[in-house]
């Protein structure tokens, strides 16, 4: 059986390591840029024959669109592994991959520190309501309409989704004197909890001073925070989202920011990226970043290397190093 590899999109830091895979794979194909239509027709015409594993780069969704059933059907039957660069993989239809016997990997762990750093940056920025000051000083107005902010010390931080990034946020927030509570699908072992308190979803909403979203997006978590949930929260709560935009009903967040239920928010992700709700752009009490949680040289290189390690392991030993959790119970079937 031929074991070739396909790279979709560009590599920024690991070109040399990709080329070295030539010693492991039968052939290296590349689809550096283009449109979904071009990709589908090339693939159907047999341009990627014999690919066994593919590397889906960080920005390749703009060239192929989502990895859905249509796209999977156009790829050769020989494809058995999709190695995705990113901790979030909501643009891959994992159940459809599982059905076709394709194993999928993502890049957890490598993203934890950089994304948690951005969560803290946004949290501190939101606690200080920093946006008006950032704007005033650049406009030559010195402090402008300066108002006092809040300390993180002694505030209750609620973490929704205590996985890799959530745990890294908890570690950092503890150093700022925050009290940590969390809600997860499953309670962690006490060793992994590191002193954080496990609470129900409703308790988390009702008792947190700051809420950080760190869970993955899937059909059951879309709009997990909406009008009803805001109503259950403490008045003056601070919301931080570095996970995925559609976890929050953005229109409900805009209303909650306007009526003071939410004191301020720090957001790296949005419901319809790169479009941002006009109510968020206009609100002074929001700190905005353009989805740049992992945007550091070190983390980007680590992520690219982890994808290549997955690809190499797939080709050499039919195993992924960081297979997505949804497939783990089905792993024997893959
Ligand atoms: N802003 C960025 O640049 C950036 C970077 C990396 C990751 N992310 C996002 O952050 C998310 C988290 O990443 P991670 O590596 O920590 O993932 P992870 O899989 O390690 O952790 C996710 C956690 O969420 C929990 N969870 C899932 N559904 C839940 C629910 N309904 N209620 C409560 N908890 C639930 C899971 O049990 C898990 O512990 C990713 O899915 C990704 O979308 C964003």
TrEMBL record:
Mind telling me which SUPFAM superfamilies this protein's record contains? Formate/glycerate dehydrogenase catalytic domain-like (SSF52283), NAD(P)-binding Rossmann-fold domains (SSF51735)
- CDD domains, from UniProt? Mand_dh_like
Q: Where is the D-isomer specific 2-hydroxyacid dehydrogenase NAD-binding domain?
A: 121-293
Q: Which InterPro entries match?
A: D-isomer_2-hydroxyacid_DH (IPR050223), D-isomer_2_OHA_DH_cat_dom (IPR006139), D-isomer_DH_CS (IPR029753), D-isomer_DH_CS1 (IPR029752), D-isomer_DH_NAD-bd (IPR006140), NAD(P)-bd_dom_sf (IPR036291)
Molecular function (GO) terms for this protein are: glyoxylate reductase (NADPH) activity; hydroxypyruvate reductase [NAD(P)H] activity; NAD binding
Q: Which domain of life is it from?
A: Eukaryota
Q: Name one GO cellular component term.
A: cytosol
Task: Give start-end of the signal peptide.
Answer: none
**A single Pfam family, by name?**
2-Hacid_dh_C
| Assigned keywords, A-Z | NAD, Oxidoreductase
Q: Which residues form the D-isomer specific 2-hydroxyacid dehydrogenase catalytic domain?
A: 62-324
What's the family?
Belongs to the D-isomer specific 2-hydroxyacid dehydrogenase family.
Q: What is this protein called?
A: D-isomer-specific 2-hydroxyacid dehydrogenase-like protein
Per the UniProt record, the source organism is: Paraphaeosphaeria sporulosa
Q: What is the lineage of its organism?
A: Eukaryota, Fungi, Dikarya, Ascomycota, Pezizomycotina
